[in-house]
Amino acid sequence: MTRRKITATEAIAQEYHRIIDDSENEGITRHDAVTLATEQVLNLIDAGWSFAPDPADAIRLAAQKFDEAQKRTADAILSALASGESSTVVPPAEINRTVVTLGGGKRKTWRHVTRADIDLMTQERALNVRRQQQAIKMWKQNAENIAPIVEQYGTVGDALDASALPLIPA
After folding, report:
1. Do the beta carbons of residue 33 and residue 19 sit within 8 Å?
2. What is the rounded distance in angstroms from the CA atom of residue 88 to the CA atom of residue 141?
3. Residues 6 or more apart from 45 whose CB is under 8 A from it?
4. How far apart are CA 108 and CA 130, in angstroms?
């Protein structure tokens, strides 16, 4: 039987799921799972079982990771600007070029942020908090609904195997 060569995206999804599933009840950190899955996919690429990642996809992923890092940096800068305190000295040029999230998918550097932008960012964060509060409320309700069944069977997998949890129609 000939094995179909898979994309790097398919390979990473398969390996990531496998590694986390193999950790069973113990669990595994995201860092360790990503590291192990990456090593395995590199081996699959070297062996010719997987295509190398598309360069555009790899660049897009790097840009998304940079954007996430900028978001954390922007929040820290706002705190430092408001309090005058920071664990590290950040030069004004670095502050000015840091990307902030305005809301609605829009980005800007601190250099060009106006009072209206600050108000918009505050409103957007308040909306995000309300969404998160609603999401945690729904999570708690759903978790409370299945918790007794999972406790009875030991794991979600065992409860599913016993048909004790309702399944979503395929």
Report:
1. yes
2. 43
3. 8, 11, 51, 52
4. 24
pLDDT tens-digit profile of 96-119? Answer: 999 999 988 899 999 999 999 999
Q: pTM of the predicted model, to two decimals? A: 0.71
Distance CA 105, CA 29 (A): 30
If you ran DSSP here, which 8-state letter would residue 29 be given?
-
What's the burial of 103, exposed, middle or buried (CB within 10 Å: 0-12/13-18/19+)? middle
121-167 tens-digit pLDDT: 999 999 999 999 999 999 999 999 999 999 999 999 999 999 999 87
To which residue do tokens 């062996």 refer?
47
Q: What Å distances lie between residue 136 and 30, 146, 147, 162, CA to CA?
A: 22, 15, 16, 28
Q: Which amino acid is at 58?
A: A
Token pair 């590199």 is found at: 42
Query: Pairing mode, if any, of strands 99-103 and 106-109?
Result: antiparallel
Tokens, residue 24: 């069973």
**In Å, what is the CA distance from 49 to each residue of 1, 36, 46, 55, 58?**
14, 17, 8, 18, 19
